[in-house]
Amino acid sequence: MRPGYAILAVPLVSGALALVWWAPWSSSPDPVARAREAFGNRPVVHIVAQLNIGLGASATRPVVGKDVVEMWYDGSRQRLHVFERRDGRVTADLVTPSGPLRGTRALVVFALRYRLELADGALRNAGADIVQNRHVVWLRSPTLRVAIDPVSYQPLWLRSVSSADPTGPLTQFVLAETVPFDPHVFLTRRQKKARHL
């Protein structure tokens, strides 16, 4: 090899080795950052969830059944609309600053805190797991336990932080997203009817 080429080869080989060492495509993705991207940043949090799903239940796609809660949360206006149906009957339909806290407490906390805790780093990767024969990654904070899909990074299941039983029932997300503001979704069914009289 000629001396001039040897001098040029050293920086080229060094650069190639540095690129291989850095290799951003070979590092594993950060599930918290990916979950933040997947959830979005539009102004209103929208959730549809099935309640009391057994950990050992057969793995099925979530569908809206008898026990379902739908929520919209607008953080800038501090408004939460909760629509709840149990055994096919509407048990709650109200717009409030805080929301009902009985059976839906964990969902209210998710609506209010999930996006914030993804952004400020409070939610941490708690490791891989299998729920209903499906691979998940658990994200944990002092206020939330959320299982996300390891490919789409969308929320799949929610566990109550206060539950001492790790095999207890879960809340299954049918939908968890952010959407544009629409004043219509912050009206109860009674208010919507009154507007059309």
Could you walk me through the main structural features you see in this protein, from its secondary elements to its overall organization?
This protein is α+β, with helices and mostly antiparallel strands. It has one domain (31-195): outer membrane lipoprotein receptor (LolB), chain A, CATH 2.50.20. It is 26% helix and 34% strand. It contains 4 helices and 9 strands. The chain has a 9-stranded antiparallel sheet, covered by helices on one side. β2 (68-74) and β3 form a beta hairpin. It is globular, with a radius of gyration of 23 Å.
SSE arrangement, N to C? HHEEEEHEEEEEH
Relative helix content: 25-40%
Q: Please count the beta strands (DSSP E, at least 2 residues each).
A: 9
Strand order of the largest sheet: 4-3-2-1-9-8-7-6-5
Give the low-confidence spans: 19-26
Number of domains: 1
Structural class computed from helices and strand pairing: alpha+beta
Indicate the multimeric state. single chain
CATH architectural category: Clam
CATH top level assignment: Mainly Beta
Shape: globular
Report the radius of gyration as a whole number of Å: 23 Å
Strand content: 25-35%
Biggest β-sheet: count, sense, barrel?
9 strands, antiparallel
Taking all residues together, what is the mean pLDDT? 82
